[in-house]
Hints:
By secondary structure, this protein is α+β, with helices and mostly antiparallel strands. Helix content is 24%, strand content 24%.
Amino acid sequence: MINAINLIEPSWVAPQQVRAFCTTRHGGVSKSPFNTLNLGLNAGDDSADVLQNRIIVRSHLPTEPLWLKQIHGATVSTPINRNASSGRPFEADAAVTNIPNEVLAILTADCMPVLFASKSGGVIGAAHAGWRGLSGSVLENTLQEMLAISPGLSPKDIVVWMGPAIGPTAFEVGEDVLQAFAPQGLDILSKAFTPIVASPGKYLANLYLLARDRLRSLGIEQIDGGDFCTFNDSERFFSYRRDKETGRFASLIWISA
């Protein structure tokens, strides 16, 4: 039995023609521990169930999403390099487009999905920003590619929504993660990394704060979202940190024709 699909619309001020939503774990056919709307083909779930779940989500979209082969990197899929990929899944962790009804999709289960839109509605982007991608400049690269396909656009013309990710009370990391963000400066490090007193060398990291700081440094002023925690909200979200074997939900964005 398929439960009612539960979609989250971004809480941002985007132009009317830009449409976006984030799925939750409800509304699909996958069995435990992937129950029920798992959209990730590489999570260990039955592929037939995942494909059925993707069909369910497709009914809410104008076209089939551009599913990426995500590798926790910082490469961006663009209309030009997608045309050269011969239909194969594009290995990237972000995507941009200025083509109406081309649906960008990001799969996550603790990492941060970040959606971008120009205030004019002419160009959009989506990024998979876990700590590796975030420290490796996936947000900077996404913005750069958006500006490249929309001459005259500036960072101040962009709005951003940070979707469901692991929250600052649950994301325990080590010294290696703190050092990966060291170039952002001591001020943001002191705010975004809280030492765990009982575990020397361990910290609680705030991905949302780190991302907001980077986005502001790029000149983006309107940044919304960042009030979720996939780890603590087991009712709505998959979480790899919480469950290890789990599904993936999707954040999707397109320009309505």
